[in-house]
Amino acid sequence: MSSVFAQQEKGIIGANNWLSNWTEFHPNEENYDEPRQILTGNITSDIKLEKRNVYLLVGNVFVTNNATVTVEPGTVIIGDYDTKASLTISKGSALIAKGTETDPIVFTSNRSVKRAGDWGGIIILGNAPTNKFGNGSVANFYDQLDPSNYVNTNYGGDNINSNSGVLNYVRIEYAGKRKKDGGYFNGLLLAGVGRETGVDNVMVSFSGGNSIEVWGGHVSLNKMVSYKANYNDFKFNYGAQSKISNSLVLRSPYVSNSSGARCLQVKSYEKMDEVDFSKKLTSVTAVNLTLYNTSDNIREDIKMGLVREAVYVSENASLDMTKSVISGFNPAVLFADKIVVNQENLDKIKFSNMYFNNCNGNIFIENNSNNEDLENWYGNHAFSNVYSKSHNAETFIDIASNSRRPDYRLRINKIIASNEVNSELRDN
After folding, report:
1. How many structural domains is the chain composed of?
2. pLDDT tens string 191-202
3. I want to staple 329 with a disulfide (CB 3.0 to 4.6 A). Which of 38, 72, 193, 310 is the partner?
4. Does 227 fall in a domain?
5. What are the residues whose beta carbons fall under 8 Å from the beta carbon of 199, sequence distance 6 or more?
6. How sure is the predictor about 258, in pLDDT bands with cuts at 50, 70 and 90?
7. Domain of 77: which CATH number?
């Protein structure tokens, strides 16, 4: 064992703490003015939402007819609880929500005591390819959908560069309502969204469903934050060709669903017969992610079944994950049981320059406790993966002294690391 001083930076990075100013880790303590304007029905022409007004989103609001909604920095849009409001940007339309570091745009709940799933969320539908047969539809997300809006629920096409707008310095809080069919809205769903769409500095907090889900498309995500989601934090599906970089997940074992919820889930389909295998399957590049479980007692929470794996990769999907931190999970990574451990699949699922900390095992196949082949492969020095049992206070720069402005960048010079797998948690 030796101190590492020249180690490559892993996890979220930056010369300064980019979480400062625009994020909010206590959103229930924020108070906003009463709404002055209502957004409802279909928006069919360009509009601008101004900071001086607080807007109430009522029911299922669709932006259609190639219209653009432009939102000023600092604007607050409140999702109505009674009507389970949602905002959908239909294919060809756009949302330009460009906040600033000191004046972010906020989507939140109108309840006095806010809870996950208070309102629907934001759905952006683009014209980029998916691996589905024909176009996809999100019609099943809406309760009592007006038949005239079915055409506005379609997504997918052949333009990998399609532009659905910009999300920058945006917070989405308490979204993810439960649907009548038992599923959930996501905080943010990007379906068939193209390469020219900008998604940076977006924080999704207390989502009743997934925080951020990507279906197909070629969108890249940067400086994303998922905070205490009930289900998955980042889920990629249906042929997504995506990169996610410099992003943070904070999971709580007392909030997150303990069955099938992960920080990062990579799939190509839910059912094989719904996709066209002649089209591209899901391929995700993940760079400089920090996936952190906020458990105070990881061993007890594991015994109680509250902590699961951080990363889940399904069959026929690719993940290249590097320079990332996975801290406090059981285990760090799980492959679907249909994945055969062979050269072809190992070439499609890569982990390099990783920092696995305080995990109850590292990389396993689902329903198989024997991971010797995987440990030997990913533990090879060529991948430069590091395994550690460092205390959180020594691992991250500052996660205790300022709960409103924590700093989850890695404390590089304090890491005591080894390239040998430490199985202390698994053995106890």
Report:
1. 1
2. 999 999 999 999
3. 310
4. yes
5. 166, 167, 168, 190, 219, 220, 221, 222, 224
6. low
7. 2.160.20
